[in-house]
Design goal:
heterodimer; A: 138 residues; mainly alpha; B: 71 residues; two-stranded antiparallel ribbon; globular
Chain lengths: 138, 71
């Protein structure tokens, strides 16, 4: 397994675990909370993502030795590019769904959290699709 | 995605014919990862024209001696 694929697996796992953490934190926010308090779960979530990402990359760099310094080759670049392209569609679809929710429910807090969730999910999709294209071909 | 490209190649045969050149050695010679050489041999990835020329040069063969078209 190449360094890029290991990295995609690891970062996908980081997105899943931190995404679940975000959901748990979100659960603690009261339904009638002020719009500003919607930011509450976001700060520890971002901290967790940054710390976990750095930790994962450090471990991978130690395990893989010279590989992290090597730039992605042509097949890897194509896979990463294609994964990003399709993840963009995932984000767009989720954002449109959020906009529809706002039209029917009229709750800004739901729209805000939906969009944050969409960003998290589309980032996970980008890593999952990278793994798929690395394995199945571009 | 799942459909193999119509470009065929003899990379594996040529590696074996050149004293069992390893996938890693070929990858180093053309500047890609071993996984990319594996993907080329399995027909899952068609290399760029530049990499195709580099592969041909490693084997001292012409482009059409290494790659073919089944379209």
């Amino acid at each position: 397994m190449s360094f890029r694929e290991k990295s995609a697996w690891a970062m996908g796992a980081v997105m899943v675990f931190t995404g679940l953490l975000y959901l748990r934190l979100l659960w603690a926010v009261p339904a009638d909370a002020s719009p500003q308090s919607q930011l509450g779960p976001l700060i520890p979530y971002l901290f967790a993502v940054v710390v976990a990402s750095i930790a994962v990359q450090v471990v991978l760099a130690i395990v893989s030795r010279g590989d992290p310094r090597r730039p992605a080759d042509e097949r890897e670049r194509a896979a990463i590019h294609k994964a990003g392209h399709w993840a963009g569609f995932v984000l767009a679809a989720a954002a449109i769904k959020g906009a529809m929710l706002y039209l029917w429910q009229g709750e800004g807090a739901v729209l805000f959290q939906w969009l944050i969730g969409s960003l998290i999910f589309s980032q996970f999709a980008a890593y999952a699709l990278q793994v798929y294209f690395f394995r199945r071909g571009v | 995605m799942g459909k193999a490209p119509p470009i065929t190649n003899r990379v594996r045969d040529l590696r074996e014919a050149h004293g069992g050149l390893s996938q890693q050695a070929l990858a180093n010679a053309i500047g890609v990862t071993r996984q990319t050489v594996i993907a080329i041999e399995q027909g899952k990835y068609s290399p760029s024209l530049e990499s195709a020329f580099r592969i041909s040069r490693v084997f001292g063969a012409g482009l059409e001696d290494v790659f073919g078209w089944e379209g």
